[in-house]
Design goal:
Number of strands: 2
Distance between the termini: 82 Å
Strand content: 5-15%
Order of helices and strands: HHHHHHHEE
Structural class: mainly alpha
Strand order of the largest sheet: 1-2
Shape: rod-shaped
Helix content: 40-55%
Largest sheet: 2 strands, antiparallel
């Protein structure tokens, strides 16, 4: 016999809608087929008719008469059926902490807790904060770079200006432009080379 308290039965009644003789959205035939197919149990057997002939009364008798292991199997199967139906209909949970409370009951009866709800409203993914410089800073860097191409100064002066630009560019992007040892070589004929020192 399952060790269910009055509080346990009230929870089961609430979760599976066992008021007025009903159980979830089952018709009599579908209720019988569910128990036969999924649990290999004849829920309409006479031994489960002690309280009456409704689905709710048959389930109540089953829960009180059956072993803990059978009750755990049935509650798990009914929960899965309930969750699938609610998901298909787009319904929200109406019983406060139903999953956790039923999990606690299943554990009390020697079963495993329900699997975590994968469709639970997990916090929406947080958009990563933009990294790097702002749009205004990038525009200023671009303008500075374009100004370099219009310089009429001697190659060495353009090279020094380019070096200063690279220093600002690396600072803006959080790179260490000093310790990396990057240097500009001012070659002959106006060729500037960036080399690692």
């Amino acid at each position: 016999m399952a060790q269910l308290t009055t509080t346990d039965m009230a929870l089961i009644d609430k979760i599976f809608g066992m008021y007025g003789g009903y159980v979830l959205d089952f018709s009599n035939d579908r209720f019988a087929a569910f128990f036969n197919r999924d649990l290999k149990i004849d829920i309409y057997h006479d031994r489960f008719s002690v309280y009456g002939t409704s689905k709710g009364k048959h389930l109540r008798a089953f829960l009180e008469i059956s072993s803990n292991a059978e009750v755990v199997r049935a509650l798990n199967a009914l929960w899965e059926y309930r969750e699938t139906g609610m998901l298909d209909r787009g319904e929200e949970e109406t019983v406060p902490n139903a999953r956790q409370r039923l999990s606690n009951l299943l554990e009390k009866l020697g079963g495993k807790p329900l699997a975590p709800d994968l469709s639970a409203a997990s916090p929406p993914p947080v958009a990563p904060e933009p990294r790097g410089p702002s749009e205004g800073v990038l525009i200023a860097l671009e303008q500075e770079f374009l100004a370099l191409t219009a310089m009429d100064e001697a190659p060495h002066q353009r090279g020094y200006a380019f070096e200063r630009f690279l220093k600002r560019w690396s600072d803006v992007w959080g790179l260490d432009g000093e310790s990396g040892g990057a240097k500009l070589d001012h070659g002959s004929g106006g060729i500037v080379l960036l080399r690692a020192a």
